[in-house]
Amino acid sequence: MLDTDPAGDRLTEAALNGTLPTTGVTEAIARRRRAGLPVE
C-alpha cells in the first residue's frame, strides 16, 4: 500500500506520542452547525 498522504507521518507521530488532538461529539456537532451542515 502506498503512503499518499503528505501529512501521514506527522499524524502517525502525533498519535503514537499521544498528542493527536481529539474532538468530542459536542464540538463536532457545533462545528457542523456553524458550517451550516446537517446534524441528525
Describe the structure.
There is one protein chain. The chain has about 40 residues and is mainly α. The protein is built from two helices and no strands. The protein has helices at about 10-15, 25-35. The longest helix is centred in the first third of the chain and has 10 residues, at about 10-15. It is elongated, with a radius of gyration of 14 Å. The mean pLDDT is about 85.
Topology:
Blueprint: H1 8-17, H2 25-34
Largest sheet: none
Rg (C-alpha, Å) = 14 Å
Helix content: 40-55%
- Poorly predicted ranges (pLDDT <50, ≥5 residues)? none
Average pLDDT metric: 87
- Please give the count of helices: 2
Overall geometric form:
elongated
The CA-CA distance between the termini, in Å, is 35 Å
Counting DSSP E segments of at least 2 residues, the number of strands comes to 0
**What is the succession of H and E elements?**
HH
Question: Into which percentage range does the β-strand content fall?
Answer: under 5%
| SS-derived structural category | mainly alpha
What labels describe this entry?
mainly alpha, 2 helices, 40 residues, single chain
Compact description:
With 40 residues, the chain is mainly alpha-helical.
